[in-house]
Amino acid sequence: MYQPKENSKLYHRLLHQKRETELFLSAVRLNIFSYLEEWTTAKIVAERTGFNERNLDLFFNALACIGLLEKGEGIYRNTSQSNEFLNQRSPIYLGEWILFREEMMSLKQLDERIKNGPVDEIVRNNKGVEVYDFYEAARVSISEMYSGRVQSFVKVALSLFKNDFPKKILDLGGGSGVLVMELVSLFPDCSGVIFEYPGVAVLARKLVAERGLTQQVSVLEGDFTVDSIGGDYDLIIASGILDFARDHLNTLMDKMYHALTASGYLYVVTHNISEDYQRPPESILGWLSSHLEGLDILLSKKTVDSALKQHGFRRVHINDVNGIFKGLQGEFYSK
Question: What is the average pLDDT across 247-253?
């Protein structure tokens, strides 16, 4: 009899993970967590929603089984984490962002793309705007950014600049522009610039007006890979945008270097891709659908680090004795 060298647990685990994910996404689509802020029954939720009581009870039990709900004697409620991020009444509700990201990174066309190859036009142009809806990505990401990213960044900026406040800040490809808006609200006499594609600049301009910052924050439209980005910045934010400049990386690095003041900082967030494109798996798989479509823009960390060094940027090494830099995704560079 044939004796296998390994068992098949891996495949069982992968199938189970898929079922957990399907449960989770269905609950978000049906807005289930907005009905379970307090202890309640499937019967009450069924009356409020029109859903089937029997199957709701089974659904709630399964969600509790995987840790997304708490279960009592025939009653259910959100966990504290589900209540904070998945309840539509929460100020940092992430449901829209989750569903958008799932659709954006979906591999539902995986079989077709493997059989038939990428889209010729996307391969030729190699631009993210042909694959991604940057406006919607910026819009639904606002609440996700306030789930910790914005707070960590602001804390670090306050520590970095201390009493030597920046006078001018650029958020390059900044989407909604919330990072620069938060900073200009804290630093006296500071102005901000959000640089975005015209389609996304509409959102940034709307938010600037809503927050009463039109006198402090301006919005520039264009393609930062080829257009002028201005100058005299004390801080340039380049968060998750360098990949989209793959074909113009040296040009962009040179522009950013000369756009900074002598004592200015460049803040860079990358995906920390390994040289063999194996890690981190979240990024490799997250970009896979767009790469199958025809994009070829994901940069390794070594490529980004080499480009920064080649153009005169030096990483800022800071002794984080108070844990201020804990949770910060990117790194700061000086000239």
Answer: 96
Q: Which residue has the tokens 């914005």?
A: 150
CB contact at 8 A, 224 and 297: no
Confidence of residue 281 (pLDDT cuts 50, 70, 90): very high
Closest CA to 75 of 47, 48, 39: 39
pLDDT confidence of 2, banded at 50, 70, 90? confident
Distance CA 157, CA 240 (A): 18
Comparing C-alpha atoms, which of 153, 284, 174 is closest to residue 221? Answer: 174
| pLDDT of 325 strictly over 80 | no
Indicate if the pLDDT at residue 320 is higher than 70: no
- For the chain, domains (ranges, CATH) are 9-90 (1.10.10.10), 110-334 (3.40.50.150)
Residue 84: what residue type? E
Indicate the pTM of the whole model. Answer: 0.93
Residue 329: pLDDT band with limits 50, 70, 90: confident
Q: In angstroms, rounded to a whole number, what is the distance separating the alpha carbons of residues 167 and 184?
A: 9
In contact, 172 and 238? CB cutoff 8 Å: yes
